[in-house]
Write a structure and sequence with these properties.
- The protein has ten helices and six strands, in the order βαβαβαβαβαβααααα.
- The protein is of the alpha/beta class and 204 residues long.
- It folds into two domains: 4-137, Response regulator (Rossmann fold), CATH 3.40.50.2300; 142-202, Orthogonal Bundle (Arc Repressor Mutant, subunit A), CATH 1.10.10.10.
- It is globular and about 50 Å long.
- The N and C termini lie far apart (39 Å).
- 37% of the residues are buried.
- Residues 139-204 form the HTH luxR-type domain.
């Protein structure tokens, strides 16, 4: 069984240690580092390159603001928000920045383990209570249908990077980026890169 490496960034020591103990008891989970701030989170990403980084929203430096830097330092890491915030705006902001999932604190170890396995497998995970809030507020955003990798690509497109430069940035083949762009255009109902970037930004 291949181990899943996990890092935890949360500024509440008791919570952080409790999550660490609970997850370390699961056979194929390995805790590789812990931190208390956004700066700690980016350092953990760079030094340990974990499969999953559990990240709080409200912490010194701001969890959501740290997502882009974390993914820049360790593109393969899945950022999974683990937070007390049940604000839909926080959820949408986190997903738009590139988080692979959003879990509300209070979840049991089994539920958290399911979320971790889901994002490691390449799928999105959002706590059921938050999905319900999104429906209630009609705040589904087109971009949430994009895969984590497609989100990375469209974010770089919106910054003005060419396919060639995006491929270099993500360490992928240029033809792979072209494939992702085809999917992005289809999902966003856009006819070109500029229109896709505009639609994506408007969904923020």
């Amino acid at each position: 069984m291949t181990a899943i490496t996990i890092a935890i960034a949360d500024d509440h020591p008791l919570f952080r240690e409790g999550v660490s103990r609970s997850l370390s008891e699961i056979e194929d989970f390995v805790i590789v580092g812990k931190g208390a701030s956004a700066d700690d989170a980016t350092t953990l990403a760079a030094s340990h390159r974990p499969d999953v980084l559990l990240l709080d929203v409200f912490m010194p430096g701001g969890g959501i603001d740290a997502i882009s830097e974390i993914m820049s330092r360790s593109p393969q890491t899945k950022v999974l928000m683990l937070t007390a915030s049940e604000e839909v705006e926080s959820l949408v902001a986190a997903l738009c920045r590139g988080a692979a999932g959003y879990v509300v604190k209070g979840v049991g170890s089994r539920g958290l383990a399911e979320a971790i396995r889901t994002v490691v497998g390449g799928s999105w995970f959002v706590s059921p209570s938050m999905r319900a809030r999104m429906v209630e507020k009609s705040l589904f955003v087109e971009r949430t249908s994009l895969t984590p990798r497609e989100l990375e690509v469209i974010e770089l497109v919106a910054k003005g990077l060419s396919n060639k430069h995006i491929a270099r940035h993500l360490d992928l083949q240029e033809k792979t980026i072209k494939h992702h762009m085809t999917e992005i255009l289809s999902k966003l109902g856009a006819t070109n890169r500029t229109e896709a970037a505009i639609r994506w930004r408007q969904g923020a």
